[in-house]
Each structure stands twice: as C-alpha cells, then as structure tokens.
C-alpha cells in the first residue's frame, strides 16, 4: 500500500508517475483476467496496491482509466523506427503486431475490448480516439516514408493499406488463434508489398 | 409454447426440424444480446417459446447448443458459387463476409465468441472444429478452382491466402467498425488478387 493511496490529498495533489505507471499495468492485467464488463476500479487499485482514491484522483471512470492505460502502453508499440526500406519497415510492423497479439495480457485484452465496444458506443468512440487513431497515425508514417522514397505510388489508398497490413495477422492470431513462425511473417510481408503495389518486390 | 416443449419424450423422441430451426435462430439472437458468458439455455428456450426440455433433448450444454446454431446458420454463408473467375469469386466472398459482419446479430456474436474463446480453450476448440474448419474448407474450394484454371500458382500457400482474404475486412468491420462501400470491396479484391499472385489482375 503506497502512502499516496492511503492519504487524501490536501490542496493540489501531486500525481506520482510511479503510481500512474503501476496503475496502467494493473489495469491491463486486471482487464486480461476479468474482461472489461467486470473490470472495477477496486480490482485495479487492489492489484496496484494503492487505494481507490489514487485511481479517482487521476480518472473519474473505469473507461478513462482503461483509455489512459492503453494510450500509455499500447500506442507506442505501433511506432516502428525508419529502416530506410519499406520491406524492412513492414516486416518490423508485422513483428510488433505479432508480439502484441501473442502477449498473454494483450492477447486477451484486445479481443475483449473489441467485443465490449460492439455493445458500448462510448467505449468504441474512446478506443478509436485514444488508441486506434494514434496507432494509425504512427503506422501511416511508415507508408508516407515509402511514398517519399518512391517505393509506393503517390496516390496510395492509405486507409486500405493499413487495413490490409493489420488484418491478416489479427485474423490469424486473435480470431483463429493459430501461431505463426518467422517464415510466415517473411512471406506475409512479401504478399502485402505486392498488394500495396510496391515498386520493388 | 410448443407441445414438444411441454411433454417429456417417451422412448425415442422425434426432434421437429421447425423447433430446431427456431432454437438455432433464438440462440444467435440471444447471444447477440447477452454475450456468450451470460447466455443460458433458459433464455434461449424463452426466446424460442419452447420449454427447456426441447433444448436439452437436442444438446446437453450451452456450448453444444451454440455450436449447432453456428454450424447451421454461419457455415453455409462461406459457400460461394463458382462464377468461373477468381476475381468474381473473391469479390463474392468479400461481399458474403461483409454482409455477415455488418449483420446486427452476427456483428455482435462474432467478436463476442472470439473474446470468450480467448478464455475458454474448450470453446475455442469447438469453434474451430464446428465453424472455422468447415468455413475454411468452403473458402479453400474457391482457391482450388482458380489453381485448376491456372489463375493462381499451383504451389499457392492456401493457409496464408485465406488469412489475407478474410483479415482486412474483419479488421475493418469487426475491430475498427468502419463501414465500407462497393468501391472499397472492388479495390480490396484487386489488392488481394495481387497479393495472391493471380495471373490476370
């Protein structure tokens, strides 16, 4: 139990980053076990060994607590460093997506939130704004670099390209739940470059 | 309330197909509302206006009841008639997948079962055996026809081809929940044919 969790704040509370980090991790771990429908602020606070006040001082609801955890821990995964080559960037993006979806925590959290969002328009909107859109902007940067290098057509349909890159691996790992090996990721990269109309495949 | 639902069977019961059909539809409608975790035999029987015995005479558990409904109503959707052209067959497959995923009932049921299966290995195994595998065999037939016509390479990686065809639309409609129009399906067909290495694109 941290001191921050026990004491009520006097005046402007200083939010300890260490506690915020612990809460973000605890939120995702708790989500993986209980699912969003049964997620509670109490359960997350207990897992993070802080009081409920430590949560409520940061976020007024479980939805905002969840979005904060996702935007801190999930969005940066989509940031792929510039390798100078579309082929390498796509391969690294697939690897990052793979590692995310087979992770024991995320592998349960992502399908659960997808399902919860189908019944909860507010959650769906928040997921898109806080997670989907920022991840998509990072992934778009990979394509924009390739267009600038002349590896992809200037009139590339970026929306479709992002669906085509992410979809097959999501279907395989999160829906069918069939594992893949490195050679699958290599071959899939080549197939996706052809789909995108990459100049040098 | 049907007579079959009220009376206990004497000796070998005759299972009325009309009641079985009503139960299959009621199972999916109830699933769309409650989700798999809260699905009950009672709820399905009530929705179908039969007694619980009508369910239990057919299936001993909610898992088997669910699989029966899916294999009756979901598997046939993947059966695309032979148009004589890979492009037309892929386009028809995408249309069928689209209509399935945007359906108000299936659009909720599919992500929910995917999420439930992440926590329930028995459900995951049954879903694959009763739904995934039969659907995949129907979809494979589309590719086998194209290989025979010389439109696809003889050494096509069929597993990857099926992931690449289904994944983008699932990602778009069931995960991102962004609608698509006919021209998206046309363009996606062309991208997928390139990915598959189709001879005449």
From TrEMBL, chains A, B:
Family annotation (InterPro entries): DNA-bd_HTH_TetR-type_CS, Homeodomain-like_sf, HTH-type_TetR-like_transc_reg, HTH_TetR, Tet_transcr_reg_TetR-rel_C_sf, TetR_C
UniProt DNA-binding region: 40-59
Gene3D superfamilies, alphabetized: Homeodomain-like, Tetracycline Repressor, domain 2
Keywords: DNA-binding, Transcription, Transcription regulation
Domain of life of the organism encoding this protein: Bacteria
Pfam families recorded: TetR_C_11 (PF16859), TetR_N (PF00440)
Signal peptide segment: none
rRNA-binding keyword on record: no
Domain HTH tetR-type, first and last residues per copy: 17-77
NAD keyword on record: no
UniProt protein name: TetR/AcrR family transcriptional regulator
Source lineage: Bacteria, Bacillati, Actinomycetota, Actinomycetes, Kineosporiales
